[in-house]
Amino acid sequence: MNSYRNSRGWLYRVQPGLGGKWRAQVLRPGRSKWESAPFLPWQTRREDAEADLIRYAKRYNLKGSSK
Fold first, then answer.
1. What is the DSSP letter of 19?
2. Cβ(37)–Cβ(23) under 8 Å?
3. What would the pLDDT profile of 18-60 be if each residue is shown by its tens digit?
4. What is the C-alpha separation between 35 and 66, in angstroms, rounded?
5. pTM: predicted TM-score of the whole model, two decimal places
6. What residues does 16 pair with on adjacent strands?
7. For the chain, give me the number of helices (H) and strands (E)?
8. pLDDT (0 to 100) of residue 1
9. 3-class SS at 24?
10. 10/41 Cα distance (integer angstroms)
């Protein structure tokens, strides 16, 4: 599973949601709850959600993260 971090320290990764759908989630610094990334669509396949996040990461120069 890929994860990325932006310049503000926000962590992005794909996680499952209700109904078997997948979407990128965001964890902001100092918070413990992941939030849905509203700028990326829900997908029925994890691979499609990962591809959405990879495109987003490239477009906005997010850095790969090991966390």
1. G
2. yes
3. 899 999 999 999 999 999 999 999 999 999 999 999 999 999 9
4. 19
5. 0.89
6. 22
7. 1, 5
8. 73
9. strand
10. 19
Query: Token digits for 49?
Result: 């959600």
State the Cα–Cα distance between residues 60 and 32, nearest whole angstrom.
24
> What are residue 23's phi and psi, to 5 degrees?
-160, 155
**Res 67: pLDDT:** 56
How many other β-carbons are positioned within 10 Å of the β-carbon of residue 37?
Answer: 19
pLDDT at residue 66 in the model? 65
Token pair of 67, please? 């966390």
The alpha carbon dihedral of 24, 60, 38, 40 has a sign of negative
- The predicted pLDDT at position 65 comes to 80
User: Can you give the length of the chain in residues?
Assistant: 67
Distance of CA 16 to the CA centre of its chain: 11
